[in-house]
Amino acid sequence: MLLGVADPLEIRQLKTFMSIVKLGNFSHAAQFLGYTQSSVTTHIQLLEKELNTVLFERFGHQLMLTTDGERLYDYAEKITKLAEDAKNDLDHSAVPRGSVIIGMPESLCVYHLTELLKEYSSLYPDVELKLKFGISSDFRMLLRKNMMDLAFFLEKNIADSDLISKELWTEPIVMVASPEHELASFKRVEAKDLKGQSIIYIESGSSYRTVLEKSLIKAGIRPRAALEICQIQTIKEFVISKLGITVLPLAAVKNELEAGRLVALPWQGSEFQTSAFLVYHKEKWLSPPIQAFVKLVQERLLK
């Protein structure tokens, strides 16, 4: 490098900057991008040094763009878009390459998509699959901000006018408990029977959790305790240990039900039934790797 000549702006630094703006803080951007928070901070410090300005300022706990930060964001969108367009236009390879960012609930990945992901990686070794676990509400936001290419949803239906969805299969949801739980002997389980019970929920925002919560509110029932746990395996172990009951996709508890470690409760309230959908934004440009993934999903999973 010539003495006195600064390093040019890097696309990855601009993408980090845009992710912070879209997600609202450094830690969320670091988690989404797979960087350490110190790396994200370094990217911004390098940008600020190169541009000789300050891009963010804090008001209490709120992170705000400075005037120069707002100006840079407009340029960053154009620069990253031009870089992506150039890559797509000049890459004449018939073999898909690049990366695809896919959002999915943990249960779908573990119990339905493992073989498909393995097959895709075998067919297209030059494509990097970046998997993000979460819930539909988060995926909607990321799809709309063009920070995610595709997402799998578990919902009853999808009516968003700006999203294109393909229903793949119906996903049964069951309420389960330990065989030794008092509700295991009930012939019918209604909302009133959950009064005083401990309920272990998957993270907020899942469609079947919402159905149960609304059923309890409608019946005026308050459980004795409610726990929120993000990991399905941990939820199952807690339920097996009689720490509470839960609702989960049947596929996630199938082995435990067959082994007798869990029992399905005969729930008589609102139906939990959901479907699995593959979703992307209607304005999303479907690159060859994305097209190849959608095609494989349709061939292997579309019912």
What topology emerges from the helices and strands here?
Elements: H1 11-23, H2 26-33, H3 37-51, E1 56-59, E2 62-65, H4 67-90, E3 98-104, H5 106-123, E4 127-133, H6 136-144, E5 150-155, E6 163-171, E7 173-177, E8 198-201, H7 207-219, E9 225-228, H8 232-240, E10 246-249, H9 250-259, E11 263-264, E12 274-281, H10 288-301
Helix pairs in contact: 1-2, 1-3, 1-4, 2-3
Verbal overview:
The chain is of the alpha/beta class and 303 residues long. The protein has 3 domains: 11-85, Arc Repressor Mutant, subunit A (Orthogonal Bundle), CATH 1.10.10.10; 98-171 and 275-301, D-Maltodextrin-Binding Protein, domain 2 (3-Layer(aba) Sandwich); 173-272, D-Maltodextrin-Binding Protein, domain 2, CATH 3.40.190.10. The chain has helices at 11-23, 26-33, 37-51, 67-90, 106-123, 136-144, 207-219, 232-240, 250-259, 288-301, and strands spanning 56-59, 62-65, 98-104, 127-133, 150-155, 163-171, 173-177, 198-201, 225-228, 246-249, 263-264, 274-281. It has a 5-stranded mixed sheet, sandwiched between helices. A 3-stranded antiparallel sheet has the order 10-7-11, with helices on both faces. α1 (11-23) packs across α3 and α1 (11-23) packs across α4 (67-90). The longest helix has 24 residues, at 67-90. It is globular, with a radius of gyration of 23 Å. The N and C termini lie far apart (57 Å).
